[in-house]
Write a structure and sequence with these properties.
It is built from 7 helices and 11 strands. By secondary structure, the chain is of the alpha/beta class. It has a single domain, classed as Rossmann fold, CATH 3.40.50.150. The strands form 2 sheets. It has a 7-stranded mixed sheet, sandwiched between helices. The chain has a 4-stranded antiparallel sheet with strand order 1-2-3-4, with no helix packed on it. β2 and β3 form a beta hairpin. The protein starts with a strand and ends with a strand. 37% of the residues are buried.
Length: 241
């Protein structure tokens, strides 16, 4: 058996994007990975924090809030999106990705969660630049609600280590205030990070939101045979400007 199998490949403005499947002996299972050039973007071997992004973000909404409209920035392997759909309060889930190839992979059923994600009538996969959308006016995109109850973002490595320089402005006070215009009152912004929560970015969030938490998410790492950690930021209740 070949250890690596390339399932899809496309040349993008940011570099060569590759989806591959491989056998991982440490867990005795198939692992799906996405690479951009020589850089690993995501792996189905590590999905705990991506799923916790949805769980923690939606759990921060007031219990009486129902019929939730949720926006996910970054489709990837689909684990953040599929975790959001487990919450029965979710009425609609719009997943925005700048790379049409990634959306096509899911429509083609190439990834483990693809069939469930595509079959759920609450889901829409939208080809758009999430960061440009957040800079723009609410309701400007025909496929998205004017405002949502939660924005869950999993695109960049960390707030200080973006995949593209055009993303940098989002992680400033002005950028977060622009994003906050897309939230209903009492809404939540939650963000995945490859690193544990950073005090500097928590401080920036606190300027825009009245309640901010940084969560350290541990998970078993079969490669190192130890425990690794990611971070999830959760911010709710936009402060008046």
């Amino acid at each position: 058996m070949h250890r690596f199998e390339e399932l899809a490949w496309v040349d993008t403005e940011m570099g060569e994007l590759t989806l591959r499947r491989r056998h991982e002996p440490s867990v005795g299972a198939e692992v799906f990975e996405v690479k951009l050039g020589d850089e690993y973007l995501m792996s189905s071997l590590f999905t705990v924090a991506e799923e916790e992004l949805s769980r923690l973000g939606l759990a921060a909404l007031a219990p009486e809030m129902h019929d939730l409209d949720v926006l996910v920035g970054g489709l990837g392997l689909g684990y953040t999106a599929i975790a959001a759909l487990r919450d029965d309060r979710v009425r609609s889930l719009a997943v925005v990705d700048a790379l049409p190839a990634v959306i096509a992979w899911h429509h083609a059923g190439l990834l483990p969660v693809s069939p469930s994600l595509i079959a759920d009538p609450r889901t829409s996969l939208v080809h758009a630049d999430f960061f440009a959308l957040m800079r723009g006016e609410p309701g400007a995109h025909a496929e998205l609600p004017e405002k949502v109850h939660a924005i869950l973002l999993d695109v960049d490595h960390t707030p200080s280590f973006p995949l593209d320089v055009s993303h940098t402005s989002l992680y400033t006070v002005d950028g977060l205030r622009s994003l906050a215009r897309h939230l209903h009152p009492g809404g939540v912004f939650a963000l995945w990070s490859d690193d544990e929560p950073d005090e500097a970015f928590l401080t920036v969030l606190q300027v825009v939101f009245s309640h901010v938490e940084g969560h350290t998410v541990p998970f078993a790492n079969p490669i190192t045979q130890g425990v690794s950690t990611n971070g999830v930021y959760v911010a709710r209740n936009v402060r008046p400007v």
